[in-house]
Amino acid sequence: MIVHRNPSESHSTKREHDSTRRGRGNAVDEPRKMASKEGSDEGSAPREADPLASVWRGIEGELEGAGRDDPRRLASVGFAGLARRRGASTLSLAYARAIASPSEPVLLCDLNWIHPCLHEMAGVNLQPGLDDVLERGVAWTSVLRGSDYPGIWILSTGGLGEAIAMDAARIAALLVRIRREASRFRRLVVDLPSIEESALALSLGECFERLILVAAPFGDPFRAIERVRRVPRSVKARMELLVNQGARP
User: Fold this and answer.
1) Per-residue pLDDT reduced to its tens digit, 57-110
2) Do 126 and 116 form a contact (C-beta atoms < 8 A)?
3) Domain coverage including residue 121
4) Contact 195, 216 (CB under 8 A)
5) Which residue has the higher pLDDT, 2 or 195?
6) pTM > 0.85: yes or no
7) b/e per residue, 3-35, with b = 16+ CB within 10 A?
8) CATH number of residue 241's parent domain
């Protein structure tokens, strides 16, 4: 098991981060284990100096190889906490920011219908969103919005309800379509509900080249761990574990 540790540095709160942004102008078959100091979803956001930069570079190196295998399909990375308040949403945005540029944009998709927050963190509205796509047949490109961050585009959850959000087959079909049609993007990054609250992330596991599971240093719920243990080996092979030192109980 590979362990990545980042420097122990302070993190800005979400409010401080938002102010800075406006000022600028606008066990799982031994998955890889990484350690983070990022804050949790509620109350913190990624910093300018990302202590996980080397981890993101490692993932990108692996995905570039995957992209060469099938250049017609956009490679994707999913993020899900083992439980709530593990910081998966914050980390998905941090990863997107680390690899995005105006010439190589990143598509950030918020499927965390239980606790949607990426739209606030990225400075876009909750609506329109994926409920329009999945429930009303609207084209996904029509609800795509540019964010406050250069090179990052957002698909918000909108008013996605439980009945649709738990239809893994329908969501998987949408992700397949996006990956085939979004050729101008460098990467698809998807924020997902925690494993404890929903099995959606694990059901969609084969839609991702990498599924990053965010854990806490003080332990995680038995229910979530059991769900992970029961997934097929083909999904486990795509998983990596990230231990977030900033996670909250």
Assistant:
1) 888 888 876 555 566 678 999 999 999 999 999 999 999 999 999 999 999 999
2) yes
3) 28-40+52-246
4) no
5) 195
6) no
7) ebebeeeebbebeebbeebeeeeeebeebbbbb
8) 3.40.50.300
